[in-house]
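Hey, quick one: can you model this chain's 3D structure?
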Amino acid sequence: MKKVVSLLLALTLLLASGLSFASAEETYKGELKYLMGFQGTDPNEEPPAKMIEELTGYKVTYYMLPSEGADEKLNLELSSGAEYDIIRMTVNQFRALAPKGALVDLAPYLEDTTYLKDIMNELEWSAAEVDGKIYGIPQFDAHFVSGGIAYNVRLFEEAGFKLDEENPDRQLTLDEFVEILRKIKELHPDVIPYVGRSAIESTIASAFGIVVHDWQPDVDGSIVHRFCHSNMKEYISFMHSLYEEGLIDVEWPVNKGENIDQKFTTGKAAARHLGWVCTPIVTALQETTGDSLDFLWPLSDENGFTLFGSNKGVVGFGAIPTTCKQVEAAIDFLDLRADPEIFLTSFLGVEGEQWEYRDSDGDGVMEYWPLLGEEYDPGFTPWFNGHYFNIVNSPESFTDMWLCRARKGEIQYEATIKQNAYPRESWVDSPLAYAPPMEAVSEYTQSLNTLTNDFIIECIAGTRSVDEYDAVLAEFLAEGGQEMIDEVNAYVEANPDIIAMSAPATITESNLYQQNNE
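Sure thing. Here's the predicted structure for all 518 residues.
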C-alpha cells in the first residue's frame, strides 16, 4: 500500500517538474461511463472516486439513477441505446435484465483477468449465471446480524427488568417479554409498549422460527416461502393478541418509519425493532427525554429456541451493457477493482491516513480501525461514502473491512457488537443468497409478497381473521406461488449443500419441531 502511495507521490512530483508528460500518458488508460443507483452526494466529487482513477488509470464519470422509478429509468436508458460502459445494479434489476440479452456475457473474458477470475468460488459466480453464461459480477454483503429489540432503559427498569452483571441475558422468551409490556402498560397507560409496522416483525417472529427472508428453513429443515411456514398461523394469532391487548401500537397498519422514530424518541413508545445504524435515534432519545436505550436479542420460545435472519450473499451486480463499445476496457477496469489493495484503498482509504490495522483487545486478532478526530487530517471522514463504489469484493474478507465502517461512531459500533453477539447457531442466511435469476421468482415475488404482507397486517389489526389463512394460501399458490415453490425446490435439490448453509444446526432443538415429529 505504501509503495502505491509513493508511486503516486512520485508521479505528482514529475508532473510539477514538467518532465512527466509521457509518464502521465502511460498511466492514462481511457474514459469510462459508470451508472449507479441514487446516492446522497455527487460520486464524482468523492475522494474514493479520485483515488480509483489514480490507481486504475481510468477516468471514470459516474451517473446516477433517480431515487424513485430507478428500474423504469434503467430500462429506458438501455432501450434507447445509452452507451454506459459499466452499470452497478440491484439484484432485482439484474434478474430482470440478464435473461433479456441486455448484458454482456463475461465468461469469455474472465480467464484472461488477473484478479477477477479468482475472487469468488463457483457457487458464488453462479449467482450471475443464466443458461451457462455469466452476465455480471456478484457483489457481496458483509455477514452480520442487523437487528435487535431497542428498549427504553428507564421504562423497562420501572417494569422490573434490568440488564446487569447479575442478569446479563439479552434474550427473553415471548412470555417474559409480554409480561414486561403488560407492566409498562399498567404503569404508563399513555405509553405504547411496543411500536412497529412490519408484517413480519422479525425480533418477535424469531421465537416462531420465522425470519424475514422470502425463502427460509421450516421447522423440519425444508426450504419454504415464509408465508408457507408451518408456524405462520401461530405467529399471526400471537401478533393479533398483542394488538387486542394494547401491547403493540394501535396504528400498526399505518405507521411509517418516521412515525416509529418519533414515538420512540419522545418516550411515547417503550420498545421497537432497531438495527445497528441507530446513532440518530439514540441521540434524539437522550436529548428529548434524557432516557437511554439498550438492546435485547430477538425473542425465543420457552425452550430458548430462536432463529433470526442474517445478511449474507449477493446484494448487487456489476454488469456491462451490450451497448458498451469498449468491453475490454471495462473488463480491465473491473479486474483492477478486484485487486485487493485497490479495493481496500477505495473502500477504506490509505493505511496510516484513513485507517490502521491493530489488535485493539490484546487477543491477537487484528482489525481495521478508522482514524477519526482532529488529530488526523483528513482521517477517515472523506471515506464515509466509500461504499458507493463497491462493485466487486471478496466475500471472505469484506466483513472485516465493513466493520471498520461500523466503528466510525461509538454508538453505532456498540449496537453492532451487541447485536452480532447473538448466537451464531441461530443465524439464518437466505437459501437463495447465491441463486441465479429465476423466472417465476422474478415474476411473482413482488406481487405475492404484497398479497401476503397485506393479509398479515390486516389480521394483526383484526380487519381480517387468521381463519382466512388457508384461503389466502390457496390464492398465493394459484397466483404464481406454486411455480415459485417448484423453481426453488429444483434449485435446492440441485444444490443440496444449500440447506446446510442456510439452516442452523439447532433446528431440531425447537420444541415446535419436536411436537411436529412426535
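One thing worth noting: The first helix runs from residue 2 to 17.
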